């Protein structure tokens, strides 16, 4: 079965990749940085504002796929400063409720455009 792709209105890809790819009922969302849709600039503010913008961008991709945050089974969060973990976690808890998706948080040296956070997800289509 070939993969299908998802394109979210207003979102841009800055390379040869799709916003999401789907295969066998799983939707793999590409990492989203805190870029304001329709611009090439990061949202103003610190880690909380950047994390919220990442989730807003991811919500647009999920919506374009006909899914929502309740369909997410795995998240990967990339931070340029692990000291931002607690503040990112507060925003993360605003988005997800129990049972929470699985998650990995990784400290990285740098992210595109100087972002401090990037988040990618895997979602699953409901059975039936």
UniProtKB/TrEMBL annotation:
One GO term describing the cellular component: cytosol
GO MF annotation terms: deaminase activity
Entry-linked Pfam families: Ribonuc_L-PSP
Family: Belongs to the RutC family.
Protein name from the UniProt record: Unannotated protein
Signal sequence interval, chain numbering: none
């Amino acid at each position: 079965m070939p993969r299908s792709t998802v394109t979210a209105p207003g979102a841009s890809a800055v390379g040869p990749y799709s916003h999401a790819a789907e295969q066998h009922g799983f939707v793999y969302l590409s990492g989203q940085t805190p870029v304001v849709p329709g611009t090439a600039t990061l949202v103003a503010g610190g880690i909380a504002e950047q994390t919220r913008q990442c989730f807003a961008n991811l919500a647009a991709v999920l919506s374009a796929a006909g899914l929502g945050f309740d369909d997410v089974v795995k998240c990967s969060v990339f931070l340029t400063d692990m000291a931002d973990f607690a503040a990112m976690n507060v925003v993360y808890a605003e988005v997800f409720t129990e049972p929470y998706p699985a998650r990995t948080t990784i400290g990285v040296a740098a992210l595109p455009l100087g972002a401090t956070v990037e988040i990618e997800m895997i979602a699953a289509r409901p059975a039936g």
